[in-house]
Amino acid sequence: xxxxxxxxxxxxxxxxxxxxxxxxxxxxxxxxxxxxxxxxxxxxxxxxxxxxxxxxxxxxxxxxxxxxxxxxxxxxxxxxxxxxxxxxxxxxxxxxxxxxxxxxxxxxxxxxxxxxxxxxxxxxxxxxxxxxxxxxxxxxxxxxxxxxxxxxxxxxxxxxxxxxxxxxxxxxxxxxxxxxxxxxxxxxxxxxxxxxxxxxxxxxxxxxxxxxxxxxxxxxxxxxxxxxxxxxxxxxxxxxxxxxxxxxxxxxxxxxxxxxxxxxxxxxxxxxxxxxxxxxxxxxxxxxxxxxxxxxxxxxxxxxxxxxxxxxxxxxxxxxxxxxxxxxxxxxxxxxxxxxxxxxxxxxxxxxxxxxxxxxxxxxxxxxx
Length: 369
What we know:
The chain is an alpha/beta fold and 369 residues long. The chain folds into two domains: 205 residues, Rossmann fold (3-Layer(aba) Sandwich), CATH 3.40.50; 144 residues, Glycogen Phosphorylase B (Rossmann fold, 3-Layer(aba) Sandwich), CATH 3.40.50. 37% of the residues lie in helices and 15% in strands. The chain contains 14 helices and 13 strands. The strands form two sheets. Strands 3-2-1-4-5-6-7 form a seven-stranded parallel beta sheet, with helices on both faces. A six-stranded parallel beta sheet has the order 10-9-8-11-12-13, sandwiched between helices. Helix 1 packs across helix 14, helix 7 crosses helix 12 and helix 10 crosses helix 13.
């Protein structure tokens, strides 16, 4: 069985890349493809064990490293240019266009879908708001996204089986693609993110600083609670804006490596998270450290956080709702050992066992047809 793995792009070591790493550990001899690859050597060794990635023509474009999304209109054409006809099984790791890879009737295509591309569907209105109404740029972006949606729908029959990272994404796949999917939760490194029973006095949050992560409402909630300390890790386009609105009780750490992130998580009173996520690996990493999570009650976190066992929910994305959750948190008692036990079900070994079995079962069925 000759396998190719197609990932959207490689430029950070995020949640989707953790899925790729685990798949690479199941089948160390698979071949890798992506639109672009700008991984550091450290991340390449971590995710791909040093292996090279076959990339598209977009890799050669000037400034693509700084902003690959400005070439969005070329993504479908670029992904379809790959010739994978010599492989038996294609695995796509897709939150954008990887699922649109060209396949033939003799190939099994399993798509691990992190989500249908959110900026073309459920986050479309939010994405388009970044461009001025009536501007040529907004009209062009709207044109590109409409074409992208049509292409995305047209390529869906090329997927033999969908695997989703949560029941939340299963419902999105059913609504958008009219296809069923099986849930296999993404891998969380519960061995690395180990429990520490010793907790500090600060609350912690970590995320890319982009608008839909809603870090501003967390900071505003702590501005209203100067008696509580918040530590913030991460970087991104909203960093300056967030620092400008933050009170003296909010401390920014910037981008931190995994060892520093683990240390900050292990000793926090709680991890606070306001985004609506497809799954949300970082909150599960916090729970793996025995840290309760205070989270927005929507999306994948409803499947990973257990109310009053591994954390608390707030019902709306507002600073007042976060503030009420902080007040409730101070009345509750959480057991770090019980929190970690809850998180272990999302460990890497569990993912690898389930995903390998899924692929092999589907391959056997495919061959017998």
